[in-house]
Amino acid sequence: MTAPPLTGLRVLDLATLFAGPLAATLLGDFGAEVIKVEHPRRPDPARGHGPSKDGIGLWWKLLGRNKRTITLDLSKPGGRTTLLRLAATADVVIENFRPGTLEKWDLGWPELSAANPRLVLTRITGFGQFGPYAHRPGFGTLAEAMSGFAAITGEPDAPPTLPPFGLADSIAGLATAYAVMTALAGRDRTGAGQVVDMALIEPILTVLGPQPTWYDQLGYVQERTGNRSANNAPRNTYRTADGSWVAVSTSAQSVAERVMRLVGRPDLIDEPWFATGADRARHADVLDEAVGTWIAERPRTEVLAAFEKAEAAVAPIQDVRDVMTDPQYQALDTITTVDDPELGPLRMQNVLFRLSETPGAIRWTGRPHGADTDPVLTELGLTTAELEALRKEGAVR
To answer: What is the mean pLDDT of residues 85-90?
Structure first.
């Protein structure tokens, strides 16, 4: 098999929790050598997030995959020196300390770039490296609130709604992987590294679409519409006769017409307001009544089959149990099985996308805390005596 496209790239993952570690995972999935650097006595909190089995955190198995794990206390002199030695061999450092923390340890950009002028230092914080909020503690929840996401999520007469998972962190993780590759492409042209400044509050604002432009040009403020859309209708979730739920979308005019023919209301297609998505959205009550009544009289399998035959857009509302058995996900191998030394075969999401010639792969799952400290530092050239000195200092576990 052809080597993955990021083979030869070395990444130091100093970050904790989700955005930075996820970016490093995505790079590792396509061949980068990722070295996860954790505090000797305070490992990444993600190891303890969510359910565990036999005391082993399951989220970490996903987030820590394709990473070698070492311990290093960067506040100790020996830890600082060792990190600089590692940075001299690396292409990328990813960190999410509050602004000024690395500088407090004399590990800021001047020191890191002196050790390796080609290094890309990727800094992820809640609010960025400067500005009035820069030194505040920042988490994805705050970004979901500040960006406008929560304000438009939920029913019109209900409170703003936060997502039940790390949405802002995940979006920032994807954006960070892109930022790293962009900075590396710049390095290929100039020969010099640079600093990536990623603020959690920005990528989620980007994916929310043209809200700032709408407001700038029209004074328009998007409001909560539940499962409906201001841009098209029918667009909602509907309950079937057997108590299941399906989602219907009619972003295309032709699909909206097919849906109305399917549910026995072709007369609505002739209404003047049916000609545009925005006008249909203003008549969502009428359209939801037509679609919802038809769906409520039929079991889910019949609804899905009828929509597919009519070439109308529908999908079942699935929980994780359904995802694990969904034939399309199975065909794509989206949920794949990986052998884990601690838990045996386990299933998790596969790499993010498929490349025809240089595919990525899950080489191993998240490893125990500090499992690779000695091999990695020995490869770096540290002697047994130096390792022992680091342990005595408390710089490694």
So the answer is: 98
How far is the C-alpha of 130 from the C-alpha of 143, rounded, in Å? Answer: 16
* CA quadruple 135, 175, 64, 389: dihedral, nearest 10: -50
CB atoms within 10 A of CB 377: 21
Using alpha carbons, select from 115, 133, 124, 236 the residue that is nearest to residue 173: 124
Give tens-digit pLDDT for 139-161.
999 999 999 999 999 999 999 99
Look at residues 155, 30, 33, 24 and name the one whose alpha carbon lies nearest to residue 86.
33
Amino acid present at 96: N
DSSP letter, residue 94: E
Cβ of 302: how many Cβ atoms within 10 Å?
14
Angle at 263 between CA 259 and CA 269, to 5 degrees: 55
Q: How far apart are the first and last CA of the chain?
A: 37
Q: Is the pLDDT of residue 1 over 80?
A: no
Residue 384 has pLDDT above 80, yes or no: yes
Amino acid at 110: P
Q: What percent of the residues of the chain are helix, what percent strand, and what percent coil, each to the nearest 5?
A: 40, 15, 45
Determine which one of 169, 216, 279, 333 is catalytic.
169
As a whole number of angstroms, the distance between CA 130 and CA 268 comes to 54
The answer to whether residues 138 and 125 touch, using CB atoms and an 8 Å cutoff, is yes
Measured CA to CA, the distance from residue 223 to residue 352 in angstroms comes to: 32
For residue 3, the 8-state DSSP code is P
Show Cβ contacts of residue 104 under 8 Å, excluding neighbours closer than 6 positions: none
The string of DSSP codes covering 304-346 is HHHHHHTT--EEE---HHHHHH-HHHHHHT-EEEEEETTTEEE
Q: What is the DSSP letter of 119?
A: -
How far is the C-alpha of 217 from the C-alpha of 149, rounded, in Å? 20
Residue 322 annotated in active site: no
Residue type, 341: P
Say how many C-beta atoms besides its own lie within 10 A of residue 107's C-beta: 24
Against a cut of 0.85, is the pTM above it? yes
- pLDDT tens digit string along 46-84? 999 999 999 999 999 999 999 999 999 999 999 999 999
Mean pLDDT over 361-380 rounds to: 98
**CB contact at 8 A, 209 and 135:** no
- 3-class secondary-structure state, position 87: helix
